[in-house]
From TrEMBL:
SUPFAM superfamilies: ATPase domain of HSP90 chaperone/DNA topoisomerase II/histidine kinase, Homodimeric domain of signal transducing histidine kinase. It catalyses: ATP + protein L-histidine = ADP + protein N-phospho-L-histidine. Its EC number is 2.7.13.3. It comes from the Bacteria. This is histidine kinase. InterPro entries: HATPase_C_sf, HATPase_dom, His_kinase_dom, HisK_dim/P_dom, HisK_dim/P_sf, Sig_transdc_His_kin-like_C. Keywords: Phosphoprotein, Transferase. The gene is virA. It comes from Lacipirellula limnantheis. Residues 1-30, 292-313 are annotated as: Disordered. GO terms for molecular function: phosphorelay sensor kinase activity.
Length: 313
């Protein structure tokens, strides 16, 4: 088993090349001022690029969500239409009863999908607030349920009692959807995905784990998987998802912005588990109006890069 962490205590570092002050007549002070101005300009440009990149990733995730939701609604509509036609063709009572039952079941599923989407819309606030992880998991599962069935992925939930976490709901849901999609893609021939919620009362954190029984990640790739644009995939899958090398990097930055931690452990041929660790919502220490989250994609260290440690167990 090999593990990797993102390092939440990374320090920013940016080297400025030495120059020969005597060559151009500039004093060391002038050189320092020029170098500082260049660094500030570079940092501003880097921050702007990161914001654009994260916005693009957010739009890509939204596009995937819209595509998934549209596909789910289309399935529901086809069920309703087909059984309505069946009921119209067959006048006998048993056939009509069966058609009505299937139409009702499809309509109830449509209601659940609508409620899940509305729930996500309610999570659009960019402020920290008490967030129930179990609810986010259930909403995400509903949207990906048909996809899991199509690829023969069995889903098992292991939810321990856990308090709300301090989070921006829509951002953590983006992380969750990304990790669940990755898990499904890792099991090309089907398998099992385990979703686990556990509360560590001693540390004041809640762990959300997404574990698959797929191909696993080779040891030499683990230290790189949180690097921006690094991907273990050849490209998007048949559903058009993944392969950009941006998803896990975005997940890491979102979790960091929550003062959390993202951890991965993997065994080749056995599977991979990603664990998101988030702080518990502390009612006494939080203001009634939640604190706005920092702009997505601009972590405290502009020069940060993942340098995870690989450990053998």
């Amino acid at each position: 088993m090999w593990e990797a962490d993102d390092d939440l205590d990374r320090a920013a570092g940016s080297g400025i090349g030495d120059g020969d002050a005597s060559h151009n007549g500039q004093s060391s002070g002038e050189l320092a001022e020029g170098a500082m101005a260049t660094k500030i300009s570079t940092d501003d440009e880097l921050a702007a690029l990161k914001r654009e990149l994260m916005h693009a990733q957010k739009m890509a995730s939204l596009g995937e969500l819209v595509g998934t939701t549209t596909h789910e609604f289309n399935n529901v509509l086809m069920t309703i239409i087909n059984y309505a036609k069946l009921g119209m063709r067959n006048k006998d009572e048993p056939s009509r009863d069966k058609a009505f039952d299937r139409i009702l079941a499809a309509a109830l599923r449509a209601e659940k999908i609508t409620n899940a989407v509305l729930g996500m819309a309610r999570n659009r606030s960019e402020e920290f607030a008490p967030t129930e992880l179990e609810r986010l998991v259930d909403e995400s599962l509903l949207l990906l349920e048909r996809e899991m069935q199509k690829y023969r992925v069995q889903v098992r939930k292991e939810f321990a009692a856990a308090p709300p976490v301090r989070a921006v709901g829509n951002q953590i849901q983006q992380v969750l959807l990304n990790l669940m999609t990755n898990a499904r893609q890792a099991m090309a021939s089907g398998g099992e995905m385990v979703l686990r919620i556990a509360h560590d009362a001693q540390t004041g954190f809640v762990d959300l784990t997404v574990r698959d029984s797929g191909c696993g990640i080779p040891r030499e790739q683990l230290p790189k998987i949180f690097d921006r644009f690094y991907t273990t995939k050849a490209g998007p899958d048949a559903t058009g998802k993944g392969g950009t090398g941006v998803g896990l990097s975005a997940c890491r930055e979102i979790v960091e912005a929550h003062q959390g931690r993202l951890r991965v452990e993997s065994s080749v041929g056995k599977g991979t588990a990603f664990t998101v660790r988030l702080p518990v919502w502390q009612e006494k220490s939080e203001s009634a109006a939640a604190t706005p989250i920092a702009p997505l994609g601009v972590p405290n260290s502009l020069a940060s890069s993942a340098t995870p440690t690989s450990l053998g167990t």
